[in-house]
Amino acid sequence: VQVVESGGGLVQPGGSLSLSCVASGFPYGLYSMTWVRRTPGKDLEWVATMNGDSVQAFYAESMKARFIISRDNTRKTLLLQINDLKVEDTGTYYCVRGGPCSGSNCDTRGQGTQVTVSS
Question: Pseudo-torsion of CA 84, 47, 111, 20, nearest 10°?
Fold first, then answer.
């Protein structure tokens, strides 16, 4: 299982980012995929999950309003659109094979992509 996250960067509050994760080494379309994040001082936090056939998306309650998860099974890619970014969104974002997870339950394989929200 390999994943490579990208798309992070420095953005001002209120801005938007689109994160991407390219997966390999497993039958991508058969698995749910999940975004998690680690913000300063906190453990890995579940953000959103999409099932293998892109029919269902699930979000952590606090993420529903501003986060949009999607996937392209042809390209084995998982996306996360984050709108109206807030300082508290600063952190490292990871994509994970499988369903919702948090903390040590998350099997992170990539390096993550850093999102910094600052004016």
Answer: -60
As a whole number of angstroms, the distance between CA 62 and CA 64 comes to 6
Q: What is the dihedral of CA 80, 57, 99, 67, to 10 degrees?
A: 30
Helix (H, G, I), strand (E, B) or coil at 96: strand
CB atoms within 10 A of CB 111: 12
Residue where the block lists tokens 């890995």: 44
Q: Please give the chain's pLDDT, 119 residues, in tens.
A: 999 999 999 999 999 999 999 999 999 999 999 999 999 999 999 999 999 988 899 999 999 999 999 999 999 999 999 999 999 999 999 999 999 999 999 999 999 999 999 99
Residue appearing with tokens 């953000």: 47
